[in-house]
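User: Hey, quick favor. My workstation is busy. Could you predict this chain's structure for me?
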Amino acid sequence: MTRLALLPILLVFACIVAGAYGAIHDQISYTVAPSYYHDFKFTQFAIDPTLHNRLGASIVGWNATWWMGLLIGLPLYIAGLFIRENDEFCRQYIRAAILVVSTALLIGLAALAFAFVSIDEHHLPTWMAGRPVSDPVAFARAGTMHNYSYIGGFVGLLLALGSMIMAARKSQDPAKAIR
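Assistant: No problem, here it is.
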């Protein structure tokens, strides 16, 4: 199979991974702050009122992140073009995609942990000013996790690109071929 034929397959894979990450991520944040969804996300994503529950939160997560698979998948694909063998190219692409979502999750969870110890009713982030929400503390904690998860995705992309570049270099030298 040519590398060009792999492009749509790998981009669909990246979109599925990104969307699944979003659905799982939003289960965590729904646990922390249902109000984040009821006061904001369900309206933002026009979720049917009968789905204002965990299923609706998963739909929000999917809709908020599946497209990130395109933004992350294309640079990984381009970096992987320099890997010699197609099977190694695919293997490294999958590893890199998992590295991106793992990094995003870890940074998001670290931000959530920090939010739990630093955000209370007397210490809300400035972006919360004037927001009429039912549970400002929980809302701010979930919002912090969401914001830092995007940063985590960017950091993960940089790490994954570095991994792809290293794999490409190794694949050019038969003595260092990845197995």
